[in-house]
Amino acid sequence: MSNRLLDILLGLTPRERLALAIAVLLAAPLAIAFAVVLPLAEARRAAEQAEAEALAVDAWVRARAAEQAPLLAAPEITARAPIGSSGIEQRLIQGGLRDAVSDLGARADGRVELHFETVGFVRLANWLSAVHPRWGYDIESFRVEASDQPGDVAAWLTLVP
């Protein structure tokens, strides 16, 4: 193959060989630039853009987490003595939920069971949020079932001292 190339080059005039050499010397760097350098530059630009977007998302997530931190901080709860079923009944009266309780019972081991046949879910959740840290009981079980009325539920609670 190189013999054929040499034969072709020797058949050219010196001026044609010079023009061919200049064309090859210009074409080779251009071919390398278009085949290698430009795709690498485009890949680098895309990677830098992806990094900038990732940093922006990270900053946004950190800002949202900082906004939520005060909301997630749990108040310090000190252990208190259980208030008993009568104390729970008083809290129900104060919360306006006594009429919604269909069963309030205390066991010998100190457990208290509450059953709400039909109660507004929001009212129940607000009442639990308000009294739970201060009544001396932990919620052992909590079951909620949807009612036919929107916003109303049936609920069963078992509290342990």
TrEMBL record:
GO biological process, one term: protein secretion by the type II secretion system
Source domain of life: Bacteria
Cellular component aspect of the GO annotation: plasma membrane; type II protein secretion system complex
UniProt keyword RNA-binding present: no
Any Pfam family the entry gives: T2SSM
Keywords tagged on the record: Cell inner membrane, Cell membrane, Membrane, Protein transport, Transmembrane, Transmembrane helix, Transport
Subcellular location as annotated: Cell inner membrane
Bilayer topology annotation: Single-pass membrane protein
Transmembrane segments: 20-41
Keyword NAD attached: no
Family statement drawn from the similarity comment of this UniProt entry: Belongs to the GSP M family.
Protein name: Type II secretory pathway, component PulM
Organism: Salipiger abyssi
